[in-house]
Amino acid sequence: MQLSMKCSVAIHCLIFIWEARDKIRVTSPLLAQSTGCNPVIIRNLLSALKKAGLITVDRGPGGARLCRDPEQITLYQIYMALEPKGLTSLIGIHPCQGRSCPVAQNIRAVLQKPYHQVADAIAGTMREITLASMIRDFEQLAGGSQPD
Amino acid sequence: MQLSMKCSVAIHCLIFIWEARDKIRVTSPLLAQSTGCNPVIIRNLLSALKKAGLITVDRGPGGARLCRDPEQITLYQIYMALEPKGLTSLIGIHPCQGRSCPVAQNIRAVLQKPYHQVADAIAGTMREITLASMIRDFEQLAGGSQPD
DNA sequence: ATTTAATGTAATTCTTGACATTACATATGT
DNA sequence: ACATATGTAATGTCAAGAATTACATTAAAT
Predict the structure, then answer these.
(1) How much is the pTM?
(2) Structure confidence at residue A59 (pLDDT)
(3) Nearest CA to B12 among B134, B129, B124, B143?
(4) What is the rounded CA–CA span in Å between residue B120 and residue A50?
(5) Looking at beta carbons, which pairs linking A44-47 to residues 24 or more positions away fall under 8 Å?
(6) Is the dihedral of CA A112, A114, A117, A121 positive or negative?
(7) What is the CATH number of domain B5-86+131-142?
(8) Distance (Å) from the C-alpha of residue A135 to the closest C-alpha of chain B?
(9) Which of A27, B89, B107, B122 has the smallest count of CB within 10 Å of its CB?
(10) Mean local confidence (pLDDT), A51-61
């Protein structure tokens, strides 16, 4: 998939959760409403964020909360929470094993270095982007209005 | 798609074309054989590389050649030749317009900056990786053997 | 000139993966 | 207890990409 539409939805949810803190209980139906996704998709996504230690989700008549300061949450952490295979999901090499052609035999090894460089660049940039900075941008854009 | 499997195939082809220069005529059936792709896919791919000015392809009983020094061909050029939409193909934002929720209304704008930063990091890294460097790595791995 | 082998594309079918949907067992505040 | 959510599995739907087929066009080779 792309730099993961999931990632966009996740950030949407995290900002929502932050803005709603101590005001309304953030449930998966509510987030589904706001993001336009299916509640099950949201639940799976929240589940992944929970496993990564970014949020807590209460069972019963639920509610999601950040369990860390937004300043301590980076885009990299969010992305990694959602993509089990990490950045290799972004990077694909065509299968062409077992051919006599030496290019086919070595292309995988040749591509490894450049693709690692790209992955490192992405990771480095993602680590510098915090949820807090995105929240600041959001609040500036939205003024004082509340999520619903 | 991922950092474009197409991209891997394209690099495969370019290395092949380089190694075969002045030795054998590189045709789409031959590249299809080596890469494991369909000849039509290869032709479309070569066509894109041609439009980008990286190679020439002769009609009739064909043959592809680089029309630039490998030192002057970067991963960025290759990628851009293949992905008309550029790096935005890698980056997706879920559609959630026309909702009353302020998060939904502003999420696109909020994501724009971080995603641009990521795209810039990718572009910068890709510009530093040349076909020549990949060819060097390939030759080191493959020793002196010929493509077929 | 004729033959042969490629390229350049369009049209169609096949596959795959992501997302949506349904269903239901489990958990919890009121 | 009841109402409401979560957690997850199973299934359905759909779109994007790749393969395949087909054919008109081109040019080298004989």
Answers:
(1) 0.90
(2) 87
(3) B134
(4) 30
(5) A45/A6, A45/A9, A45/A10, A45/A13, A45/A82, A46/A13
(6) negative
(7) 1.10.10.10
(8) 8
(9) B89
(10) 91
